[in-house]
Amino acid sequence: MDLYNLNHGFLKWISDPTKGSRNTTEMNITQQKIIDSLTSIWKKQNPSFIPRPNHTCNCKVCDIENVIGWMYKDPTEGKIKVCYEKPTTKKRKKITNLYICKQTGQVHWCHSQCNGQRATSVDQGCVCTISGIRYESERADTWIPQYRITATAQEHRDPHAIRMSEGEYSAQSAASYRSQQHIGYANTTIKLLVFSKRRLYAEQRKYFEQRQAAEKLVSKYAKSCERQRQPVKFTNMVTLYINQIQRRRVFHGLLPKKNKLETIVKAYSQRVCIFWNIIIQKTPMGKSSSSLFSFKSFVAAALYIMKRGMFCSGLEIIPKDYYLESVLPEANTLDHYDVNKPTFTQAKNNIMRAIREAIETYRINPKTLLMPPFKSPFK
């Protein structure tokens, strides 16, 4: 409780033009004047205290007295005065914030923002250790800005960095920012490969090309039968048409509901990041040659490895993902999605080589390289 909270309502009330004097210049009183006035009265009445400059008061150790005072307007002089005894005038304000140590005479003005040490109560309130008063929440920091008070671009990207120490920030913030970058890039890649308009148009174009090729094949069959004076069999035409259409798979129903789409993308983005961390942190090749596993080229390669799964030493290191098998485009069309095919092939080979070398050459326990159980977004 500061001077404003203590005194503002009182001053406003006694200076109300309907209540009496309007002269507030005579009512100039500060919090320190109130403290000094009450302390002076108390020390005259309690001269036995012994000052101890380095002493820190605590209500459990010290004998703390709550000094009650009054602030009132003197009806004869028209000024605000402070006293111990309850004044007879109606224009008065009780003061309960002052606490004094009977042993040392140290003074404490208690309020929700006071400088007393805080202890947390069982119900998570904050208790001043001098007065013993419980406040609802922790005190706010009161400080004068000497440097910038706006967040930097780095702090905007990683809000938790503001709460970290300098040592923690350099390591944790960098890792956090890199992780956010990886998840963001994986999100973009998965959406482009599976759910983008580019993929939709590619499937439509593939279907039309297949249908044209099937119709052309059926027409060729019919003309051949006509030249040879043989009957055109409808079943043969249907067989030729279906076989031609199915030579290249056309994916249907790729777009789920919006909320489901975001859940799927998020789940597989996190899955790719986990896979990348396993390669970088747990395989000797990943530790010594991390430049071979650029995350940009890693994402697509990891998705296609997860699509087929991977066994090594009789153990399923990477479980086969049947959903990815049903939705990922053919690998020979990846250049259409801004994925360089030679780089993709090299990244895929490096990942499988890193796992095989770790298990077969360095004799690392295969169980340490296992992918954790997948929290399916379809449940």
The SSE string, one letter per element, is HHEEEEEEEHHHHHHHEEHH
Strand content: 5-15%
Largest sheet: 4 strands, antiparallel
State the helix count. 11
- What are the segments in which pLDDT stays under 50 over at least 5 consecutive residues? 1-27, 138-149
Number of strands: 9
Q: Indicate the radius of gyration in whole angstroms.
A: 39 Å
Q: Percent of residues in helical segments?
A: 40-55%
The gross shape turns out to be elongated
Count of folded domains: 3
Give me the side-by-side strand order of the main sheet. Answer: 2-1-3-4
How far apart are the first and last residues' alpha carbons, in Å? 54 Å
Q: Can you describe what's shown?
A:
The chain is elongated. The two termini are 54 Å apart. Strands 2-1-3-4 form a four-stranded antiparallel β-sheet. Strands 5-6-7 form a three-stranded antiparallel β-sheet, with no helix packed on it. It is 46% helix and 11% strand. A hairpin with a 2-residue loop joins strand 8 (310-312) and strand 9 (315-318). It is α+β, with helices and mostly antiparallel strands. Mean pLDDT is 81; it is low at 1-27 and 138-149. It folds into three domains: 3-135, no CATH class; 197-245; 258-369, no CATH class.
